[in-house]
């Protein structure tokens, strides 16, 4: 099985929440020893921590499946924590915050792996943009979270207190310190959620540190080679490059939860993709960049600043348009904007769809521009049985617009 197909399969399984993943990864080095090497918080002998260790030991399958969902992002978060010389237990904090569900939303409208509420997200640069939700961006939100945690540690000089402030807020923590007349986290009068927050993280760290001792299994997550980070130029149409590169929509969704749709322009600053997809997308982006350079030059030469004002002559506009049409074809798709967007939209439509948990025929049909009756006609089994996660349905029987 190719590395790209392995990653696609793994991403699909994780997105569907299907138990423990046993797929072989293309690299043999596990991330866990490296993560353990940077741990320095301890605390596993405290009774509060032992209580959560016992909880996870009683549910080993759940524990393994939860950590398996970290596979697309853990390598990046660990790198970021190491770069800042932070305790590597912090790389496990999304386990507590979101159970590694990048689409998680709390009752207080906290979003993403790190569960930023709108106010805190805005304060740390996590703002919405065109087809992009920064709080769901694993890269941007990790940068913001580790920056915030570092600030809190400088303020309180203690990691349990810094973590408590991250969870409950500085104002509430300061009030608890004042009321409790202590800076010892374990003795502070804090809300139950915050009282459990720190020992839960320390329990997870203890299990990762000594899985054999506690009888749990760590999922096979590679130290490197899981994905690559691509820096994006907002002027280059990423959605066209994705379509031309043939990136699987499900892989794109799992690795890039901040993108709202795959077939529209975006202001996302980065993209995460498995290595094989990253190579293809970088090549397509380079072609697009090359094609756009003479296009911009032609516009500049043929239509200087005054040319498109209210007094512009029709001749000057026609000359500019002709220069654009005469540009060499440097891409393997049509340079005309409308045609390129149409091609992207058509290529992004899969012939088959894998059912996700909670899907209905109505939802799937709406997503693919089909009626329930059409879906049932193309998938006779779907009409007689209830949908199940992982089931493959045929959609978009005809990819051509004139196909009747």
Q: Which residues sit in consecutive blocks of at least 5 with pLDDT less than 50?
A: 1-27, 301-349, 399-404
Provide the structure class.
Answer: mainly alpha
- CATH class category of the largest domain: Mainly Alpha
Total of domains: 3
**Which CATH architecture of the largest domain?**
Orthogonal Bundle
User: How large a portion of the residues is in β-strands, by DSSP E?
Assistant: under 5%
The overall pLDDT average reads 81
CATH fold node name of the largest domain: Lysozyme
Q: Please state the overall shape, judged from the principal axes of the Cα atoms.
A: globular
Terminal CA distance: 37 Å
Total DSSP helices: 20
Order of helices and strands: HHHHHHHEEHHHHHEHHEHHHEHHHE
Which radius of gyration do the C-alpha atoms yield? Answer: 25 Å
Strand order of the largest sheet: 1-2
Please give the largest β-sheet.
2 strands, antiparallel
The number of E-state strands comes to: 6
Query: Percent of residues in helical segments?
Result: 40-55%
């Amino acid at each position: 099985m190719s590395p790209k197909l392995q990653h696609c399969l793994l991403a699909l399984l994780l997105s569907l929440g299907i138990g423990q993943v046993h797929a072989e990864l293309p690299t043999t080095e596990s991330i866990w020893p490296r993560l353990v090497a940077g741990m320095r918080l301890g605390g596993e002998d405290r009774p509060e921590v032992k209580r959560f260790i016992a909880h996870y030991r009683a549910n080993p399958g759940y524990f393994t499946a939860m950590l398996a969902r970290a596979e697309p992002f853990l390598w990046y978060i660990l790198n970021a924590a190491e770069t800042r010389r932070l305790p590597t237990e912090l790389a496990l904090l999304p386990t507590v915050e979101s159970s590694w569900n990048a689409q998680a939303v709390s009752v207080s409208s906290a979003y993403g792996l790190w569960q930023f509420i709108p106010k805190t997200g805005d304060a740390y640069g996590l703002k919405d943009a065109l087809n992009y939700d920064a709080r769901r961006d694993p890269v941007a939100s990790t940068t913001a979270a580790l920056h915030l945690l570092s600030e809190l540690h400088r303020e309180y000089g203690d990691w349990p207190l810094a973590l408590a402030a991250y969870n409950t807020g500085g104002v509430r923590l300061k009030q608890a310190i004042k009321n409790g007349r202590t800076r010892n986290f374990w003795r502070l009068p804090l809300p139950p959620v915050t009282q459990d927050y720190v020992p839960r993280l320390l329990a997870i760290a203890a299990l990762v540190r000594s899985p054999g001792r506690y009888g749990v299994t760590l999922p096979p997550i590679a130290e490197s080679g899981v994905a690559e980070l691509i820096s994006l130029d907002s002027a280059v149409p990423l959605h066209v490059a994705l379509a031309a590169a043939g990136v699987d929509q499900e892989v794109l969704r799992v690795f890039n939860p901040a993108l709202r749709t795959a077939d529209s322009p975006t202001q996302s600053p980065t993209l995460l993709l498995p290595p094989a997809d990253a190579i293809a997308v970088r090549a397509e982006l380079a072609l697009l960049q090359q094609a756009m350079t003479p296009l911009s030059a032609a516009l500049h030469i043929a239509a200087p600043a005054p040319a498109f004002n209210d007094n512009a002559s029709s001749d000057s506009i026609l000359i500019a348009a002709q220069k654009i049409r005469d540009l060499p074809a440097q891409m393997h798709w049509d340079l005309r904007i409308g045609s390129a967007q149409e091609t992207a939209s058509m290529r992004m439509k899969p012939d088959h769809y894998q059912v996700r948990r909670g899907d209905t025929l109505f939802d799937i049909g709406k997503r693919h521009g089909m009626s329930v009756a059409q879906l049932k006609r193309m998938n006779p089994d779907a009409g007689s049985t209830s949908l199940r996660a992982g089931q493959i349905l045929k959609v978009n029987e005809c990819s051509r617009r004139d196909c009747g």
